[in-house]
Amino acid sequence: MTIHFYSIITTEGLGNTKDGFHSIQKRMSGFHASQCGFCTPGMCMSIFSSLVNADKSKKPAPPKGFSKLSVSEAERSFLGNMCRCTGYRPIVDACKSFASDVDLEDLGLNIFWKKGDKHPDPTKLPSYTLGGGICTFPDFLKSEIKSSLDFNDASISGPREGWYCPKSIKQYYKLVNSGLFSESSVKVVVGNTSTGIPELSAIVRKDKGIEIGAATSISRSIEILNQESE
Description:
3% strand; two-stranded antiparallel ribbon; mainly alpha; DNA polymerase, domain 1; 8 helices; Ald_Oxase/xanthine_DH-like
């Protein structure tokens, strides 16, 4: 239920043999970043999400063919992923090749230029479109969400058992205090910002500091704090 109304892009949606491969997948291959292949789909999607998030930032536009991702951000992209084969170096190199501040001479063995080249040519890397290139939300899901907004409104007249989707803090408290169930029988699930409670993921700048919603991810919080400290 927590992915209800979500549009999910898998590694096959990123690129495949029928429609062609994404530049992430091509660079993973070109930097010899896949051996047994077990971790490769997850690594590709981690790189993709890092690129999309970086390109949404207010950083200056990067050189053509690169993203707004920095080398330090690229190195942190895999903190939640495990690889038992490569030692991570070629995977990190594949990701760093998208970074706007990368020194191409520091990258490891690859098929795009010869080892020892003093001036590697970035145009030989598989081309990259700023923003990731494929993040489109399906029209049918937009229609489904729109038609459900009035129907599923945290009504308190329903049965004691079921899935309730309050869309504001006010609706949440109304539901909890309705007497339909005891607090011990309720499991609160944080869904998402589109069909969940936006206030819980909001970040508000105030005179005395920054108010961060309880459902805001750690990575998003770090990003905002870094921006404010600059």
